[in-house]
Design goal:
CATH architecture: 3-Layer(aba) Sandwich
Radius of gyration: 16 Å
Strand content: 5-15%
CATH topology: Rossmann fold
Number of strands: 5
Number of helices: 8
Oligomer: single chain
Helix content: 55-70%
Bound molecules: adenosine monophosphate
Strand order of the largest sheet: 2-3-1-4-5
Shape: globular
């Protein structure tokens, strides 16, 4: 199963993707995590990305498509993947489609996790305390939200137009949200 997870910053994409890995047995690919790792390792790309991430802007599409192409070329994605944080604008969505069509492995499902703004703000404040992410400060979060609404939100319609989109309510306990996602995917929901 090839799944694209969509949702605003703080909607719980990363948390849900990590849980989905256990149930679905396919890898979680987070472009944000790949970029943060590159920054931590101090690679040229990582250092360039860090200053962009710390402003809450988007890393250029070309860098991202190279990164995602390399990642989707690895063997562990043979049975599918959960994409978290990509695509983030329409150009990336089109580029992903082209890439996956070439591999004869088109996206099967796009899931939008819906969470209202009050909740998003609370969750990010909690994560800021827990993880200390440099882009979870109030000013940067405000910019990330703006970028999300301007550039990423149109991606929701892109997948809706292709008949691939489902909305899932992101309120409530983490496990409840997971069950909603699994039910959309028609995955057997017996808890382990
Ligand atoms: P995330 O962990 O998904 O919230 O991503 C953190 C930051 O990494 C974003 O605010 C962007 O600066 C950058 N980033 C992650 N994924 C992408 C992407 N697909 N395109 C551009 N920038 C990205």
């Amino acid at each position: 199963m090839r799944i694209v997870l969509l949702g605003a910053p703080g909607s719980g994409k990363g948390t849900q993707a990590a849980l989905m890995v256990e149930r679905l047995g396919i890898p979680h690919i987070s472009t944000g995590a790949l970029l943060r790792n590159a920054a931590k390792r101090g690679t040229e790309l990582g250092l360039k990305a860090k200053s962009i991430i710390d402003r809450g802007e988007l890393v250029p599409d070309e860098i991202m498509s190279d990164m995602i192409e390399e990642r989707l070329g690895r063997e562990d994605v043979a049975d599918g993947f959960i994409l978290d944080g990509y695509p983030r604008n329409l150009a990336q969505a089109k580029s992903l489609d082209t890439m996956l069509e070439r591999l004869n492995q088109p996206t099967n499902e796009a899931i939008q996790i819906d969470v209202d703004l009050d909740q998003l703000v609370k969750r990010i404040a909690r994560r800021a305390k827990k993880e200390g992410r440099s882009d979870d400060t109030e000013e940067v979060v405000r910019n990330r939200m703006r970028v999300y609404h301007e550039q990423t939100a149109p991606v929701i319609d892109y997948y809706a137009d292709r008949g691939l989109l489902s909305h899932v309510l992101g309120d409530g306990e983490v496990e409840e949200v997971l069950e909603r996602i699994l039910s959309v995917l028609s995955v057997n929901q017996t808890s382990t």
